[in-house]
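Subject: sequence -> structure tokens, single chain

Hey, anyone have a minute? Need the predicted structure for the following. Not urgent.
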Amino acid sequence: MVDQLMIELPAPLLGMLLLLVILTMFPQLLAILDRAANLLIQNLSLMFIPPSVGAFFLGAEIYRQFPSLLATIVLSTIAAIIVMAVLIRVLPDAPGSGPE
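Reply:
Had a minute. Here:
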């Protein structure tokens, strides 16, 4: 769909925006989505099995790339903290959210 519309957005982001529009237009779909989401959350541990198996069999490759992985995790965490701090300072408070 992204290629056909020639939109420069990542497909997952476009999908989330499409989901937001559809759920805004048809709020009755929330009940169906709620059931499906709860089922996925209840079985969330199953989603971690493939990466765990991959990590088990690719241990040498992970060990070889460990410095890069560690740097990526640390730098992205720091970047996320900085972005959130800036957003908290820049965005106005929601009505009724602070002490009065």
